[in-house]
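lol so apparently i was supposed to do this last week
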Amino acid sequence: MATPSLGDMSPADAESVYFNEYPPPKALPKHEALARAFIDRHVEANRRVVLVTSGGTTVPLEAQTVRFIDNFSAGTRGATSAEYFLQEGYAVIFLHRQYSLLPYSRHYSHSTNCFLDFMDEAPASDSTQSDHGPIVVRDEYQHQMRDVLRKYRYAKQNNLLLLLPFTTVSEYMFELRSLAKLMRPLGPNALFYLAAAVSDFFIPRSRMAEHKIQSSELPAHLDKDSAVEPDDIYTGENEEQPSQRKKLVINLDPVPKFLHRLVDGWAPDGSMVVSFKLETDPSLLVYKARTALQRYSHHLVIGNLLSTRKWEVVFITPDPPHERWLRVPKARRSKSISGVEDQVGLAEAKKKSDGSAPTPEKTEEKAQAATRQEGSSDGIEIETLIIPELVKLHSTMIEKKTHKPTS
Ligand code: 9Z3
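anyway here it is w/ 9Z3 bound
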């Protein structure tokens, strides 16, 4: 009898098959100990704690991994959101893809914001006559850097930010499951904000090649790895007989739907779960986000298009208004290389052409009013709109849970 695929099993069965197939990440015990202490401290302070997931996940092609499948996410959404959650008084567990952007340091990292460009060498004081002047922050960045530095140090000194890295999709799953269970003592004070771009497909351990997949055929006595059929192996472009070219064919299984298990099993009772839905086709976004909310019965799906994600998102909720767009007003949109501004509004317009009622853009009006008040034309990050709205929803949920009449 053929073994059922994970997609055909109940979420609980798929969970146990999935987690039994992989060894837990080596860092998991250490991360659990750090998270336990962090959560205990904030339970005691009756502080809200948000688990922010951030960045992409990799799907290894070999157990001793040389190659893997990855995705585009740099972790901007996660790292930026974490800063605004801290500003709102939350403690943040930041579960992120290793080497993706981090809260605060994101302002001065990677090649777009290389920290060296913010620095200068000041002249040495006269008395020393040396050419070793102190290293300083350039005048034009003093104000912004002081602000970022103060916020960073405040978060650090008060133990408000816990950074936990992962790399592969299975590491992410193990970490998410453990953290959600550890967060149970927080009850309604726990919030899950799942911004990581998690792979939908993976190679099960049982079918994975142990060693580096070979790009040319090996003599029979050296070919021990049967996970990849020799005929499937791509052997390069320089074949003498092009018709004989081979390809590497990768057969991926769907990753089990972890959101079911998070909502129904791992997460604390009364906690709030927010997931993200990413699409590239504007006509699908609202439909897919709604379907996800119905399927997993959680509290909020934040929908975004790859091309407009820095300027607009849609909140899909089980309660009215059900669909709500948050947009950075035109004058305050920061330029983005990958963004396509012409597509702003398209996903909402598509939905309206279905005959459904249009939604007033209250938030945009509010943000425009703010622009007029401040008289500034600086760009704003869309997370300045997302996080306060989300905090309001979380507060309402906490209010309901804590003032529920006991029968
Ligand atoms: C998102 O949709 C995030 O907003 C982005 C942020 C990944 C687009 P960046 O890192 O991008 O700032 O460049 N995250 C969730 C994407 C995702 O994998 N969602 C799953 C889905 O769409 C559901 S959990 O099926």
